[in-house]
Amino acid sequence: MKKGIGPMLGTRGYGIMFSGQWQIKSNIITGFERWLLFEGKIANNFSPFMEMKLGPILAVDGIEDTRKFSNRWGKAGTIMTYGIQVAFGVAFLQMGGSTISPSIGYEYLPMGKEVDGRTNYNGTVVNIAFTFGNNRR
After folding, report:
1. Domains in the chain and their CATH numbers?
2. Low-confidence residues of the chain, pLDDT below 50?
3. Run of H or E including 70
4. What is the pTM of this model?
5. Rounded distance, CA 58 to CA 119, Å?
């Protein structure tokens, strides 16, 4: 299993994503993301992919009326919900089996209740995933 982390920048906010991957075949990775459309067809370390992610989302709603960090985030409300994301990107393979994968797509994020005047935070999303390889050099 390879593990990854990276920033996620969306139309209506930002966050941190975590991923885990198990390789089933040379062109299919399962777990949390990635289908490699052109695996083995493009030379070097460049591999375009399509991904679909779904799973739990922890949304943190800070208190916007205050400027002090501890007041804004110390008593912030949280919401557990689910999300679905479809994206296209490119995996840049690194030595040791790690990858850097920027992607862009659309995500569906229903909140289940009103949060800051909205019941969903659907929109465009940009991900940059850093996946760590199993080998260390």
Report:
1. 2-132 (2.40.160.20)
2. 33, 136-137
3. helix 69-74
4. 0.67
5. 15
